Predict the structure of 5'-nucleotidase SurE.
Amino acid sequence: MRILLSNDDGVYAKGIQVLQQALSQIADVITVGPDRNCSGASNSLTLLNPLRTQTLDNGFIAVNGTPTDCVHLAISQLLDHTPDLVVAGINHGANLGDDVLYSGTVAAATEGRHLGLPAIAVSLAGREEAHFATAAHVTVEVIKKLKSHPLPADQILNINVPAIALSELKGIMVTRLGRRHKAETMSSDTDPWGRKIYWYGSLGPELDAGEGTDFYAIANGYASITPLHVDMSAYKSMDTLEQWLAGIRL
Amino acid sequence: MRILLSNDDGVYAKGIQVLQQALSQIADVITVGPDRNCSGASNSLTLLNPLRTQTLDNGFIAVNGTPTDCVHLAISQLLDHTPDLVVAGINHGANLGDDVLYSGTVAAATEGRHLGLPAIAVSLAGREEAHFATAAHVTVEVIKKLKSHPLPADQILNINVPAIALSELKGIMVTRLGRRHKAETMSSDTDPWGRKIYWYGSLGPELDAGEGTDFYAIANGYASITPLHVDMSAYKSMDTLEQWLAGIRL
Amino acid sequence: MRILLSNDDGVYAKGIQVLQQALSQIADVITVGPDRNCSGASNSLTLLNPLRTQTLDNGFIAVNGTPTDCVHLAISQLLDHTPDLVVAGINHGANLGDDVLYSGTVAAATEGRHLGLPAIAVSLAGREEAHFATAAHVTVEVIKKLKSHPLPADQILNINVPAIALSELKGIMVTRLGRRHKAETMSSDTDPWGRKIYWYGSLGPELDAGEGTDFYAIANGYASITPLHVDMSAYKSMDTLEQWLAGIRL
Amino acid sequence: MRILLSNDDGVYAKGIQVLQQALSQIADVITVGPDRNCSGASNSLTLLNPLRTQTLDNGFIAVNGTPTDCVHLAISQLLDHTPDLVVAGINHGANLGDDVLYSGTVAAATEGRHLGLPAIAVSLAGREEAHFATAAHVTVEVIKKLKSHPLPADQILNINVPAIALSELKGIMVTRLGRRHKAETMSSDTDPWGRKIYWYGSLGPELDAGEGTDFYAIANGYASITPLHVDMSAYKSMDTLEQWLAGIRL
């Protein structure tokens, strides 16, 4: 099996290094990641400037672009063989609920899916680097399973693993995305020259973290797996919309 | 009615100026957009650096950030009153099919929705600036209708309008997202110093542009309205996934 | 006379607009400036990415690059006729003493000189925008004089004007660069996520602001003109250096 | 002896790694460099965003800023002890003649000088990485000499070494800066979307490369050492300027 590995924290981050080693036990792994921390990059593309690559001593390829750029560039230009699977992570910090919309790690997986490949995003819900090993272990097990149980062609898996030892992990839950409360997450300040600046700050409190959500799984010591679909069309609303549009006279 | 207007082409672009004037006929409009072209920004956030604002002579507020930053900053920090609606556009160029995943204009609308507000993204499917007026007209009519027919709380509308005169427009179609073929859209080159570089290039050919899609509507002279839902959870796959995960032993 | 006008605060700044109007009384002026605030850009070049231009409604040309890029691009690619003079400013804030090393405005003038043209940098030593008119007036008078008294081929003029009404200006002093004390100008802080960050802060106190310096002129109500030479070779030290190098055995 | 080492090619470049090892034979070396290639950064400062550091596995500290930022941050915030010397390099490619104005490597040395320290910039005039060893050797020998022959307080040394084996090096010449012809170094092109772009291209041909210049030394197989002074005041022109200004009536 050939795996393309990427992330959004950048190619020098601990999480991608641990995952590269774990995946190398079961597959040929090629790692192509951003040369800088791209947290919050979402599915952004570098359209106005060209991309460049640099191969590091450990064989990782660093790209001066976003996670989406990395996966697109790798598959369309850099790799000799199309990979069998795209894996993104291990993200430093959780990607739960609304986070998935902004996450560059989830975006790297989505880009793999767009290019026709099965794809998985993996995040450590916590900061204790020792527990990247737990997330790597879960990922390897899921991938083994994936071989015989392929995903639908328009979906990816979003895995979050609590930052605890493997021995403490209670299991894996299939979940839906919860929601954070988004308001009040930005603060204003002044820079040292007295000019007003604004920062994103702490994450909002949870708004929907009830049973069945990814928040709930993590809070209770389970790894969370959420299937995400890539097609954003809201089919259910089409009829209604059609009715009220009928009244518009251009 | 109060409208927050943003875009991804930047606050100096023609499309946002035309739309601001049209919307001002029916609402109080506050315009907050990026200070530079952010095409392809998707839902990216500026997490590592602070945001700054500058109010221009025409009252528009320019932000050194992404479309998502603009909407989030406006609603959480800049506006005295929460707006009734978020509008993003008029985008210079179409946002059809897979484009919505990468579009900063669609992302601006999505961010409005995340913060609890109805939201619309508008794009001109073509480059002839004279026809921004057509897109502006369609947008105004849809907004008038929206007052009495509110959208579901987890959806936005993605409007694309062909670049033709209003008199030639055949009507409005409710559509689902089509798909572009993604492969082969990147090319390699060398910079003037002989170093290898890579560029995204022309958009892929259409892979699913059949009847019912947004591509189809535009190709046939109709404005396209696609309802998009924001929750990416793939509810349908949860049972299946649960079954095969049962076999994993950690 | 043809003048190429640029700055480092960006093409939307008040200072360049006031100066453009004043210079238009005595010359054909073409304005090419950065599309964003580039304070502190020094002589930096954009080598890894391409430059792009956008012509604004007022005829100014905005470039996605540094002040040096603007002057180089204008002279080598954009202008039909080589200008007779390069003017940079009016800078928002003083460029005194060591500031000239970091100033993008001074760098724009230096680039003009490198390309073989007489060049002047102008800064307002203060923030009261009403007094840009004073700096513009001084600049126009100096330029008139410059026609009959050309500068040496390796020098530029660095003009600073106090932020006072023209009627209060005591005159113009020819000065040498003073010096600021550089230490203790940086501070550390944490971002909202608890990560350590560092900012440049307030300017250092003056270390050499005695009679004859540019600091002294401004402090006493005079405009300051400092001739700057572009060749950094330290001719005086060459003999000494040659002697002690003689002892090196490779 | 304590040495602060920096560069402009970035902390992952080969040149800074070779020099770090050579300098470690004669001093305690702390390496603080940009996290990305900053060629052409000149003395630019990061004023609008905060700086961040990351300590790499090899002990090098990577900064998300310019070479000037690195030296300023290191001396004012990061180091426990003020270093005795600032060294910048080994630059990948020559810094000869006008290049010094744009070079981030020379700027790193200049910043050391501004903060009161002796400073040296070192460049390899060629691309063959095997010969970084020659440049490192010359640098070490010059530093040994510098201990007993301090530089004037307002000067730095700019060293260029030809990309040849040490055994082929003919010696060291003290030089003045030559000059390149600057015109015709930019080219225009179109990006894959058909929009016009401009690139800096090949370096200009030599305009002044005669005996005594740094160009001449390199071309003849010698290392070149040019003393550069930091004060740009053109003292010689002050009298003349004073005379013609006398005629200005404000």
The mean pLDDT of chain C is 92. The first strand of chain C starts at residue 2 and ends at 6. The radius of gyration of chain C is 19 Å.
